Amino acid sequence: MKVPFADLHLQYLSIKDDIDAAIAAVIKSSAFIRGPFVQKFEDEFAAAVGAPYCVSCANGTDSLYIAMHALGVKPGDEIITTAHSWISTSETITQAGGKVVFCDTDAKTFTIDTAKLEEKITPRTVGIIPVHLYGQPANMGEIMAIARKHGLWVIEDCAQAHLAEVDGQMVGSFGDAASYSFYPGKNLGAMGDAGAITCKDKSLADKMAMFARHGGLTKGEHRIEGINSRLDGLQAAILSVKLSRLAEWTAKRQEVAARYAAALGNVGGLELPENAPGRTHVYHLFVVKHERRDALAAHLNEHGVQTVINYPVALPFLPAYEHLGHHAEDFPNAFHNQSRILSIPIFPEMTEEQLGYVADTVRGFAA
Ligand SMILES: *Cc1c(COP(=O)(O)O)cnc(C)c1O
Questions:
Q1: What keywords would UniProt list here (predicted)?
Q2: Domain that holds residue 144
Q3: What is the CATH number of the domain that holds 360?
Q4: Is residue 157 lining ligand 1, measured as CB closer than 6 Å?
């Protein structure tokens, strides 16, 4: 049996008529850039995550950069983020003119360790970017308390956590702004690149929209110099179709995760993802840990189960950050995890047979 890591084509087939009709409608009206489809998706996404404002843009990486630019990051400003994420989170800090300051993850949740956060704050610190990694929210209560105490802004990187919640409150609604990616493989994915930022403050929303659209909100207006980072009409129409299924797909992911947990709970040497109390995990990824990770991955791949490592090298140890001179001891949890983590298949369309086969194959390795 072959189990893919995800199956985007199967997802398309399950909503083919709606997607095809949405694409045809955009082509028929030539509403390729901005226009009614983009506006509609922005409104729908804001409503779905309970945000007053949504500014769409070209991709999730830009959403971080645009938010930091609008928050006024200037050279020398320090921004603290997690040692374990996709590089977008940290590279955009540099792109915005700031200085990246990494903080270790906690031992259990793969999210920023709030016990180590305060010691990273200096007089130059301006903001914190927590990442709701793999779909599990970071400890937003603690993070917001620390941010308020020190007068820092917070951008939540929600690229992997659409609709995740902390104590019943949606992620993205805690900080000053929230960045989203709609990269095809994300829980809500376009058929190309797409992203958005949500926020509560109208003047921040206007600043972000202006910067993303050549410095103006209307055609011909250029109040500042900006960039070109726009969501296109085709992606917006596709995203509207998919957004209407997101809650259902999220529930399916949670169901698959619960089945994995039941089937793999007592497998020797295997650590399952831990879900912190009060934090609703949306399982963008199902990441297990094993001392012999590479052997487990090879065993699964030999038996037709596709796996991925998200991510093989923690951010501080990448060649891109060699100049910071970090050592393993600086980020013990991120360092410990990078050689043990393995993402196994999880997607809403996964069948009972696929799920059972993956679990059996993992158990077969342990035996
Ligand atoms: C995917 C991702 C991004 C960037 O999104 P793109 O749309 O690929 O630019 C940022 N942060 C995290 C944590 C991500 O997983």
A1: Aminotransferase, Pyridoxal phosphate, Transferase
A2: 8-243
A3: 3.90.1150.10
A4: yes
